[in-house]
Amino acid sequence: MKNIVDCWRDGHKVALGIFRFLIPIVVIVKILEESGLIPYLSIPLGPVMDLVGLPAEMSLAWISCILVSMYSGLMVLISLSPQLPDLSVAQMTVFGVMVLIAHSLILEVRIAGQCGASMSFQLALRLFSGILAAFLLHLFLDGAGLLQQKADILLAAEPTADLGAWLMQQIITLMEMYAIICAVMLLQKVLDTLRISEFLGRLLGPALRLLGVSSKAVSIILIGFTMGLLYGSGILIKSAQEGSLSRRDVLCSVSLLGLSHSLIEDTILLALVGGSLWGLLGFRLLFTLVMGAFINAFYPALERFAASRP
User: How far apart are the C-alpha atoms of 21 and 216, rounded to whole Å?
Assistant: First the structure.
């Protein structure tokens, strides 16, 4: 019972912090919708969305994820849902992978800089990787005809012309999102109790060592993978300042953590809006390890501008 109360308190605190950004975003999206500006604002990133097989309007949700947080982007997506065509599970998985790799970049790139990595390189890496991963996954899923069924987007909004009905719908959506945030916190606690994080660590440890990452850096990466970027980067910053990690380890660790962190919590969140759990988790991890191998292999060429402070 105490654990449930603690999870609710954590979820309550997180939700209130998120809602400070979500509510203004919802209002802005409504104003843009009523003014008819959404199609025009979608034009700049329209070619990118077309490249990965997504409607141009979804670029607004991705931009919100990049600038603010994943929750804000999902709220934009929910608000836009009445204007979007029916989306497949494949499309939501592609969108989810792109968002999981490239989100909250203003905050997270600054964290990378504190660890001793180039912020400009990390920004370019995550934007490029998000688009590349989404493109490759789109080609694979569409080419193989996988996950083409209609996605079940939790909390999807219904079309409404009445302002009062729209306001009530948003209040209900925020209440449902509040419940989801608390539930995700509880589920994370359950998974920790079942030692799922430890299992992921044992599974990924050998692969990371094959990439040339030292044993000390492996433990830091695994913490970030399972518990989140802030936890992993906190230890990484301390180790980097103490000089106990090489420049190669710092760059590889920061890059891997940027591409994959909070594997359980964030993956579950994107699965709730229609993505495939195995696509979101499996493909993202595979892509991250391949990119990690690339960075490790070409480290001498990258070191000059990627592993130093900007």
Answer: 37
